[in-house]
Design brief:
Layout lengths: L3 H10 L16 H17 L3 H28 L8 H31 L14 H12 L8 H23 L2
């Protein structure tokens, strides 16, 4: 079992050297990427960057579940939508989607940086020593907003997912 996000990140960042930004891993395929990482760094290399991915999921799920019911109840209490309506559920899901994007984006940025950094022969990152070092470097060099790079794209991806997941979850609970 591996962290496939690392391979995805390597392949998404890969481009022609004339327009390349950042480190290029030069994988030829998905299977080639897994094979190359495994040959160079073993099983541990396949899990590089997961220290940012695990808290990402935990924080995102907590934000999603903590905000959905509160937001849904709030819009009903203020009589924007009637209780039990699909509109109240969608509104709660939209608010929850914003909370998920705000809480997950820093972890996405850190994970991406850890996944995509160049490493030395023993698999040690050349740019960041780990999760906390990555957060501190981003914050000190780019400011706190550096941790929120791509938040719009994150919301466009997670917003609809959150709305639909919570809508169906709420409907299934009624059964």
């Amino acid at each position: 079992v591996v962290s496939p996000a690392q391979v995805k990140t390597h392949l998404q960042a890969q481009t022609l050297s004339a327009v390349a930004v950042g480190h290029q891993h030069n994988h030829e395929s998905i299977s080639g990427a897994f094979e190359s990482i495994y040959k160079q760094h073993g099983v541990a290399g396949l899990w590089r960057g997961v220290t940012g991915a695990v808290p990402r999921v935990a924080v995102g799920s907590a934000a999603q579940l903590a905000t959905f019911t509160s937001a849904k109840d709030w819009v009903c209490e203020h009589q924007w939508f009637r209780e039990g309506s699909w509109a109240a559920v969608l509104a709660g899901g939209m608010v929850s989607g914003v909370a998920v994007a705000v809480t997950m984006t820093p972890f996405d940025v850190v994970s991406t940086r850890l996944y995509n950094q160049p490493v030395d022969a023993d698999g040690t990152g050349k740019l960041y020593r780990g999760f906390l070092d990555c957060i501190l470097q981003i914050s000190s060099k780019e400011g706190l907003l550096g941790l929120y790079k791509g938040i719009g794209a994150v919301y466009l991806r997670l917003g609809p997912h959150t709305v639909l997941s919570l809508f169906f979850w709420d409907e299934l609970r009624k059964m």
